[in-house]
TrEMBL record, chain A:
<keyword id="KW-0256">Endoplasmic reticulum</keyword>
<comment type="pathway">
    <text>Glycolipid biosynthesis; glycosylphosphatidylinositol-anchor biosynthesis.</text>
</comment>
<keyword id="KW-0325">Glycoprotein</keyword>
<dbReference type="InterPro" id="IPR017850">
    <property type="entry name" value="Alkaline_phosphatase_core_sf"/>
</dbReference>
<feature type="transmembrane region" description="Helical">
    <location>
        <begin position="437"/>
        <end position="459"/>
    </location>
</feature>
<protein>
    <recommendedName>
        <fullName>GPI ethanolamine phosphate transferase 3, catalytic subunit</fullName>
    </recommendedName>
</protein>
<keyword id="KW-0808">Transferase</keyword>
<feature type="transmembrane region" description="Helical">
    <location>
        <begin position="499"/>
        <end position="516"/>
    </location>
</feature>
<dbReference type="InterPro" id="IPR002591">
    <property type="entry name" value="Phosphodiest/P_Trfase"/>
</dbReference>
UniProtKB/TrEMBL annotation, chain B:
<feature type="transmembrane region" description="Helical">
    <location>
        <begin position="12"/>
        <end position="30"/>
    </location>
</feature>
<feature type="transmembrane region" description="Helical">
    <location>
        <begin position="112"/>
        <end position="132"/>
    </location>
</feature>
<keyword id="KW-0337">GPI-anchor biosynthesis</keyword>
<dbReference type="InterPro" id="IPR009580">
    <property type="entry name" value="GPI_biosynthesis_protein_Pig-F"/>
</dbReference>
<protein>
    <submittedName>
        <fullName>Uncharacterized protein</fullName>
    </submittedName>
</protein>
<feature type="transmembrane region" description="Helical">
    <location>
        <begin position="42"/>
        <end position="63"/>
    </location>
</feature>
<feature type="transmembrane region" description="Helical">
    <location>
        <begin position="153"/>
        <end position="171"/>
    </location>
</feature>
<keyword id="KW-0812">Transmembrane</keyword>
<keyword id="KW-1133">Transmembrane helix</keyword>
Length: 1083, 219
């Protein structure tokens, strides 16, 4: 068995996939750290160092403010063109803005208001209240809930005692729970509903405005946005909606008092189809209209007027106009036209330079804090900015002392500093990197192709063996070349690009090599045995996989993923009997019709055997269908699924109120666990694997049941209500700590022990007469059935080890078996020498993973086991039917592999998980650690193990697909033996050792196929994220799905490597065992 | 001989297709307030009943239905009774399969059962007409070398097309378009009917073009 090419090729494949994912995700998902500090009134941000006065006590420029947010108010909607005689539905519908601008030029301004991507409402609200540039992942301590903890306007307003009244889109209520003085949220989820939110606001806004219990009023209208999503901007409904908004603005302006500021703005724009989320100018350019009943601006518009107002600038401007500190993480710049030049200001109001200086100091402070926390801002830029600031501050202080604060030069340099800080931050956080995304896509697409080639040409690659050395060198060279090119071009090295170059070159090299070997085989040997052909691939299994990948491109299908995947798996399971029947395997051949040549070559089976096999097959099928159906009862619910009720089994016992129900659930879970353990052990006993005295058998006999028992006890303890046994509370606390930890230790020890000594073979040697003659016979292995009465008693399948391979054979080997019909050595459990330890390993792993789940999931885990078993039996009988009881080549066809891989996703859902962040079961981190953790590695890995439990389980057990047809061989051989045929004896898994090359290639092929199925799904969800990055649901559905799919792939590939390595470990152990046995037997 | 069989099949299928169209069109005239979406169950029953009646009549008239072995009334009655029983059992079977595929278990049992009736009348009924109440023969027909006459091949086509059509019909259901035809079981029954019509058209066409390769063993 060649272990090196198998492992290295698989490892390389995984590495290439992961590189692709890494590149794409690096370009698509931007990560920013949240700074959890808040500005306060006492911050020494006031101009001039000597004046340490309270920042908030001064007289603010405005006492009140009204913020009208019209979702998706594009700048095109707000502009008015009097010459346009035939306006489109969205043009010239807000005449109020133009009328005000021309009638009161010193009271009002209209600017384009540029949003930063991602241009989705939630990120934008976060952006123009915190003044920062929110990304998809803002790493803070509130990952599980959506509430904003970063310093923001609403919090600052609350701190100085201003009453904030909110009405409109309920996203605000989720972001700022309980922060408002009064709030009237309306549901925003239904895009088809154009009027609920707006009408709700209109019923309340005017009475609120006329009343006196508010200081800041925020109203968020959604109608325009929903109208865009539903009909697009170019639709009469949009005209109606904008006209309605025109009326709203008019009425609000009429009701304003002199000390009130009105801001009308959009949070983002929209594309021509009415969507948003991306970074095109149509999506980013919203409108902002500022108005005050008292004069606000210098007229006419002077050269300081900005052309475009970035959305971050609203925060410092509003803060300084309302007299509150600028939120800590804001990177905005005050809107200068709203502040008077030095010397012309009213008492208490800030002048332009003062406002800029406060702003610059705040931004500098944030930059210092952030750069001490995160390292994603390039150090060169950072030091440049620092130098700029220190220069500015000295300049400002001298100017301040001399009283020369009105110098336009200083203003300009302060503005330049603020702009460069914002640009730096934007470059770091708020831009998709299209090159990285494209590179990731290309690498992933090629990786899928490569994986397919690898699976089809596995035998060739195993034969070649030495193909890797040259590619390794080439890959290193490319990586280094890319690094040098970068050094020459930019002066610094970006690691992702080096890795990308290496991965890409290795893929291309591989494809070229595959192409060459293919042509060589074609021309040289005239044999197309290992050729790849497209029609051969178009089986229903691959079709189902394609459907699955296509389903990842639609948000509705991703939301309903649990049902969809069950539907697909069910279809595939249903296809198997149809297929078998089509080929005539299901009915005994009663009528003798002309059979195809493949069937003619071998004797037909007697009807009784066929009937028995068919009934087993049907029972397995029923089991698959039953567990598929039952698994639907363990699903959780997404918030988008309105009428869905999450499964009862998902809530832990301790949270259940009804005692009867609690007991019922407990009994169900414990019996499921017991059945799980029992099934594992009885399978091993059935195949004679529990007779040996090895460590693995000890594990199966003692550690497996013990850990199940401690799991059951743990559930009992954690389900006990806390107040029921007061005097035992200490004991319960101890048990809560000790029981799961005992289970952890037992399982870890068990897994390690299996790894150390995976053999479960029991040898029963007999004194044998020496016979040199027999050793001349060609070596072959034989299994006899039911020779020893003791074996019959225990339902054992004794495997007879008769002769060694010729290389080990000294010619002294005993051939006594040939003479007296009794073998020299009987080895119990040799037939399942590979699958028994692997199954035990997976079973123990399953119990460990179950420990991290709520109790009710024991049933789901039992279903996993049953479905796995049933699929294995179906696959085995399918294989043996197809090859007419002789299983050679060991190739696993696509159908079971796809079934296996889709079952992983199916049980991801059936164990209560969902591809959304709020549905992560954080409780898993506290199993056995009720008091929390000190580090982050352990809880994080526990949560990962919990989330991807099904992926781990199915990936580790994947090699069973290769082994199972061999395990099942014995059933058929019994039947054949019964009818008196002279056929070769069943040797089960030992046959793998007869052709090690084919074993390696089959293992490689199986793993490559499994990787391909998962990789194709990752590729599909990457495509979905890339194509639909402007979709309404991208940050709610597609991006989380991508994250989960990518993490699942990484976990799967690691677990699969683990499983394959374990099989190789068993193989080496078997080799050693044979080596030990040869001298014994020959002595 | 081939041409004649294909012609018989073609005319037979034309009658069936026309009857389905009629079953959709006629109630719209006769029954007030009838619409395919709105009163979908009525449509399903109308189509099922028509297909059942017309196929039974046509197959009997053309003499495709296997002749009874005995000509006693009792045997014929028992045959009829068994056919009805199989029809009902097949409805139950399809209902179970639909539920397993994810149809609502309790909420819209009537809708699910109606679809099962439709599927039965499109598939099982044809088996009954062509092969008689003999499940072994049904299973035999759906294998590669199981078809023993042109009608068996045709049966394979129509049954496969109807089932695949119903399967494909399930795909638009999860989409959030809120169209009337996305309501359970409208799209599935449409899919099944369209599949059936496709099968009716495809079977004679395919047989016509492959008549050289087709060889049947006599029964
Ligand atoms: Zn929005
Ligand atoms: Zn929107």
């Amino acid at each position: 068995m060649k272990w090196f090419p198998v492992l290295s090729l698989l490892f390389w494949m995984c590495a290439v996939y992961i590189t692709g994912i890494y590149l794409f995700v690096g370009g698509f998902l931007l990560v920013r750290l949240e700074v959890n500090r808040t500005s306060s009134c006492l911050d020494a941000l006031y101009p001039g160092q000597e004046l340490e006065r309270d920042f908030c006590r001064g007289q603010p420029r405005f006492r009140k403010a009204v913020l009208l947010i019209i979702d998706a108010l594009k700048i095109d909607f707000a502009r008015f063109d009097p010459n346009n005689t035939s306006p489109r539905p969205y043009e010239n519908k807000l005449p109020v803005l133009d009328e005000t601008l021309s009638a009161k030029p010193s009271h009002s301004r209209l600017y384009p208001f540029r949003a930063d991507p991602p241009t989705t409402t939630m990120q934008r609200i976060k952006g123009f209240t915190t003044g920062s540039l929110p990304t998809f992942i803002d790493v803070g301590n509130n990952f599980a809930s959506s509430a904003i903890l970063e310093d923001n306007l609403i919090q600052q307003l609350g701190q100085v005692g201003k009453r904030v009244v909110f009405m409109g889109d309920d996203t605000w209520e989720n972001l700022y729970p309980k922060r408002f003085h009064r709030s009237l949220p309306f549901p925003s989820f239904n895009v088809k509903d154009l009027h609920t939110v707006d009408n709700g606001i209109l019923q309340n806004i005017y009475t609120t405005l006329e009343g006196d219990d508010w200081d800041v009023l925020v109203a968020h209208f959604l109608g325009v946005d929903h109208c865009g999503h539903r009909f697009g901007p170019d639709h009469p409904a949009m005209a109606d909606k904008l006209t309605q908004m025109d009326g709203v603005i008019r009425s609000v302006i009429r009701r304003l008092q002199n000390d009130t500021l009105l801001v009308v703005m959009g949070d983002h724009g929209m594309t021509d189809t009415g969507d948003h989320g991306g970074e095109s100018q149509k999506e980013t350019d919203a409108a902002i209209f500022i108005y005050s009943p008292s004069p606000l601006f210098q007229q006419p518009q002077n050269q300081l007027e900005p052309e475009v107002v970035p959305q971050t600038d609203l925060v410092p401007t509003l803060a300084l106009l309302l007299g509150i500190p600028i939120p800590y993480s804001s990177v905005g710049q005050v809107l200068l036209p709203l502040f008077p030049p030095h010397g012309q200001s009213a008492v208490g109001a800030l002048s332009q330079q003062e406002a800029l200086w406060i702003n610059a100091k705040q931004v500098n402070r944030f930059l210092e804090t952030y750069s001490s926390m995160a390292k994603d801002i390039p150090p060169e830029t950072l030091s440049l900015l620092r130098a700029q600031f220190s220069h500015l501050s000295s300049e400002y202080i001298t100017a301040h002392q001399k009283g020369l604060l009105s110098s336009p030069q200083l203003t300009a340099s302060l503005q330049a500093y603020l702009t460069s800080v914002r640009d730096t931050c934007r470059a770091t956080w708020a831009k998709f990197n299209p090159f990285k995304m494209a590179a990731g896509l290309v690498i992933l697409a090629l990786a899928c192709a490569t994986c397919l080639l690898l699976s089809e040409l596995s035998l060739t690659f195993i034969r070649e063996n030495g193909a890797l050395k040259s590619s390794c060198i080439a890959v290193m060279l490319t990586g280094v070349c890319v690094a040098i090119a970068q050094l020459l071009a930019w002066g610094y090295v970006e690691v992702p690009w080096c890795v990308a170059g290496a991965a890409l070159s290795s893929e291309l090299l591989f494809i070229w090599k595959a192409y060459r070997t293919r042509t060589v085989t074609k021309t040289g040997l005239k044999k197309s045995a290992s050729c790849l052909s497209v029609p051969k691939l178009l089986t229903p299994a691959v079709l189902i996989l394609l459907l699955r990948c296509a389903s990842l491109l639609s948000d509705s299908y991703v939301i309903a993923e649990g049902r969809v995947i069950t539907f697909l798996v069910f279809s595939l399971a249903f296809y198997i009997p149809v297929y078998l029947n089509w080929h005539g395997y299901l009915l005994p051949q009663i009528y003798d019709s002309p059979k195809p040549s493949a069937l003619l070559s071998s004797p037909a089976l007697p009807p009784s055997v066929v009937r028995k096999e068919v009934s087993t097959l049907m029972a397995s099928l029923a089991l698959v269908i039953g567990s598929l159906f039952l698994s639907l009862f363990f699903h959780g619910c997404r918030e988008e699924q309105g009428l869905c009720q999450p499964s009862q089994f998902l809530s832990p016992l301790s949270r259940m109120q009804d005692d009867k129900l609690k007991n019922l659930h407990y009994i169900l879970s414990v019996s499921a666990l017991a059945l799980y353990t029992f099934l594992l052990r009885s399978w091993m006993r059935n195949y004679g694997n529990l007779n040996a005295s090895s460590i693995t058998v000890f594990t199966a006999n003692w550690i497996l049941p013990l850990s199940s028992i401690s799991l059951g006890l743990h559930w009992a303890v954690s389900g006990t209500p806390e107040d029921s046994f007061k005097n035992l509370s200490e004991l319960i606390g101890l048990a809560q700590l000790a029981l799961p930890r005992a289970a952890y230790c037992l399982l870890t020890a068990g897994l390690l022990l299996i790894w150390l000594d995976p053999l479960t073979v029991f040898i029963k040697s007999k004194t044998s007469t020496q016979n040199r003659l027999a050793s001349r016979l060609p070596p072959r292995y034989r299994a006899s059935i039911g020779i020893s009465p003791q074996a019959e008693l225990h339902h054992l399948i004794p495997q007879i080890y008769q002769q060694m391979r010729q290389s080990l054979d000294d010619g002294e080997l005993s051939g006594a078996g040939e003479e007296d019909g009794r073998p020299a050595v009987e080895a119990y459990g040799l037939g399942t020498v590979y699958s028994a330890p692997l199954l035990l390993f997976c079973g123990m792993l399953g119990i460990g993973l179950l420990l991290l789940h709520p109790e009710g999931m024991a049933l789901a885990f039992l279903l996993v086991l049953l479905e796995m078993g049933a699929v294995l039996y179906i696959h085995a009988s399918h294989c043996l039917h197809k090859h007419n009881m002789k299983y050679s080549g060991f190739n696993v066809p696509w159908t079971p592999v796809v079934l296996w891989a889709l079952a992983a996703t199916q049980f991801f859902h059936a164990t209560g998980h969902l591809p959304t962040f709020p549905s992560i079961q954080w409780g898993a981190a506290f199993v056995g650690f009720p008091d929390g953790h000190t580090g982050t590695v352990l809880p994080a890995s526990l949560v990962i193990l919990n989330t991807f439990a099904s992926y781990i389980l199915l990936a580790v057990s994947c090699p069973l697909l290769l082994l199972w047809p061999l395990v099942c061989e014995v059933r058929y051989s019994r039947g054949e033996r019964a009818c008196g045929d002279e056929v070769e004896d069943a040797v089960m898994e030992i046959r793998l050792r007869e052709s090690p090359q084919q074993f390696s290639s089959a293992l490689l092929q199986l793993s490559a196929r499994y990787l391909f199925v998962h990789g194709a799904q990752v590729f599909a969800s990457v495509c979905a994220a890339a194509i639909l990055r402007r979709h309404l649901m991208v940050w709610k559905v597609f991006a989380p799905k991508l994250m989960f799919e990518a993490s699942a792939f990484i976990v799967t590939s690691l677990s699969m490597l683990l499983g394959v390595t374990f099989v190789l470990r068993i193989d080496s152990a078997v080799t050693q065992w044979f080596k030990r046995l040869v001298p014994d037997a020959s002595r | 001989m081939w041409d004649q069989e294909i012609r018989v099949m073609g005319s037979c299928h034309a009658i069936l297709a026309a009857s389905i169209l009629l079953a959709t069109g006629l109630p719209a005239v006769l029954v007030p307030g009838f619409s395919v979406y709105g009163t979908h169950l009525v449509w399903i029953y109308s189509v099922s009943a028509t297909v059942t009646g017309v196929s039974a009549a046509v197959f009997w008239l053309f003499g495709i239905t296997p002749p009874a072995k005995k000509h006693t009334v009792g045997y014929k009655l028992s045959r009829l009774f068994r056919s009805c029983l199989y029809f009902f059992l097949s409805c139950l079977f399809f209902h179970t399969v639909l539920v397993l595929y994810g149809a609502p278990l309790i909420d819209s049992a009537l809708e699910t059962f109606s679809l099962a009736v439709l599927l039965t009348s499109l598939t099982t009924l044809r088996c009954l007409c062509v092969l008689g109440p003999n499940i072994q023969a049904w299973i035999r027909v759906f294998s590669r070398h199981g078809a023993m006459s042109v009608w068996d091949t045709c049966l394979q086509f129509t049954v496969a097309c109807s089932l695949v059509g119903a399967w494909l019909g399930a795909f638009p259901i999860p989409l959030d378009w809120d169209r009337p035809w996305q309501v359970w079981p409208v799209s599935c029954s449409f899919g099944a009917t369209f599949g059936f019509l496709t099968g009716l058209f495809a079977a004679p066409t395919w047989i016509h073009y492959h008549r050289k390769q087709l060889t049947y063993k006599c029964k």
